[in-house]
Amino acid sequence: MTLLETDRLTLRKITVDDDAFILDLLNQPSFIQFIGDRGVRTLDDAREYISARFIASYEKFGFGLYLTSLKENEIPIGICGLVKRDTLKDVDVGFAFLPQYWLQGYAFESASAVMGYAKNILDIQRVVGIATPDNQGSMRVLEKLGLRFERMIKLSEDDIELKLFG
After folding, report:
1. Domain tally for the chain?
2. Which residues contact 35 (CB under 8 A, 6 or more apart)?
3. Beta-strand relationship, 162-165 and 149-153
4. Three-state SS for 9?
5. Rounded to whole angstroms, how far apart are CA atoms 65 and 116?
6. pLDDT for residue 157
7. How far apart are CA 152 and CA 162, in angstroms?
8. CATH number for the domain that contains residue 134
9. pLDDT (tens digit, 9 = 90+) per residue, 94-129?
10. Domain that holds residue 15
11. Residue 156 confidence (pLDDT)
12. Residue 163 vs residues 2, 12, 69: alpha-carbon distances, Å
């Protein structure tokens, strides 16, 4: 069931049936470099991850990351949505796309829809963004969304420093 729709994309909740796509996305070298290795190596791992992360977020917060697909053929190209982290006061906008769909405006298009949904439907007044200091693409998208660099943060003591945009 479509949650959000843009000119070119649809966004919907991720289900365990999306296991093959999530397995592929989470094992892309770019995902591991910029977001992290989630240790998802099999379809069973993917289904477990979907249940523990995505579905649990929908149930706990009423939002989460959504499967982002091309409207014309329903091919999944990435994920985009809202994340509430235990160690971050604000909700953040998150996105990850298969590399073959980069530089086509899909991250901005989907994240813009998510930001509007956060503000107008969920009544979340402040949404931030985080990115690794070397993730130029994500930082450009966050800035295009109107977010500005505020400070460096760590989500945990042993984590790397991330750039926080608000």
Report:
1. 1
2. 96
3. antiparallel
4. strand
5. 15
6. 85
7. 6
8. 3.40.630.30
9. 999 999 999 999 999 999 999 999 999 999 999 999
10. 2-165
11. 87
12. 31, 28, 28
